[in-house]
Amino acid sequence: MDQALHMLMVPAGDMAALRTFYLDGLGWQPWGPDSPGSLMLRAGTAVIVFVPRDYLAAESGIDLAAAPRAVNATFVETKADVDTQFARAIAAGAIVTSPIRDRDGGLYSGYFADPEGNGWEIVWSPVMRPGADGGLVLATPETH
Length: 144
What we know:
This protein has 3 helices and 9 strands, in the order E-H-E-E-H-E-H-E-E-E-E-E. The chain is α/β, with parallel strands linked by helices.
């Protein structure tokens, strides 16, 4: 199997709330063919697709009620970017789950949940940065 992640499929219950949060609140752009039953968002080099929970469970054969949730992370260039993007998420209706603060490993971040409880961290790292292609790159000593 290739060591790659191209799409993250997230079980969803209230597609309208997710569309309002991500498109209207955060200003993200939809990606791919328009489908009222799902929401696809390009995030760096991967695509996040919110899929109706029952449909995804039936298609995958996975009991999604028992599946643990993941916490998604968005890396930014500066600590000020953490503050700005976190504030926009809160203004869009996100629920703060852990306020912005300095964390282990020199990280500066805050955590929130979207309207369906999907976790997000907006993080500045001294050793990882968003690259030109939208994926993560390791910072070299010259970029600190």
